[in-house]
Design goal:
Helices cover about 45% and strands about 30% of the residues. The chain has about 120 residues and is α+β, with helices and mostly antiparallel strands. Strands 1, 2, 3, 4 and 5 form a 5-stranded antiparallel beta sheet that branches.
Length: about 120
């Protein structure tokens, strides 16, 4: 924050971009955020873990979470998030979409009332 307070945006950018590359965050990777909304905290956690299991077999440690967002409950729905980090090059996007679609179908069969939202490159 000292760079921002001193209006030194160039140094701030240079340090930030180094950290983003080091820890694999945008713009060096693509992110997919998957949010699960359920009527109970336990169900949201179960569904997020089930979805992660389904994806981890093909995506391995690229799947992060699940974790509750800063505001865990909205309109009586409990939230859990998964994050997927994907390299910008060399990834078979069609295959990844299919893995996500298959996991979504599997989870929807078991928990049809849980809402699943997928956000590619969230802000």
């Amino acid at each position: 924050f000292k760079h921002i307070l001193n209006y030194d945006y160039i140094t701030f950018f240079e340090e930030e971009i180094k950290e983003r590359e080091l820890f694999s965050y945008p713009p060096f990777v693509r992110l997919i955020k998957i949010t699960f909304k359920a009527n109970s905290r336990e169900t949201s956690i179960k569904v997020a873990n089930l979805f992660k299991e389904a994806l981890s077999s093909s995506l391995g440690n690229r799947v992060l979470g699940p974790e509750a967002p800063g505001i865990e409950r909205v309109r009586d729905m409990y939230l859990q998030n998964l994050m997927i980090k994907l390299d910008r090059t060399g990834m078979n996007i069609a295959a990844i979409k299919e893995h996500i679609r298959t996991a979504n179908l599997k989870v929807n069969q078991i928990y049809p009332r849980v809402q699943i939202h997928i956000d590619v490159d969230p802000a």
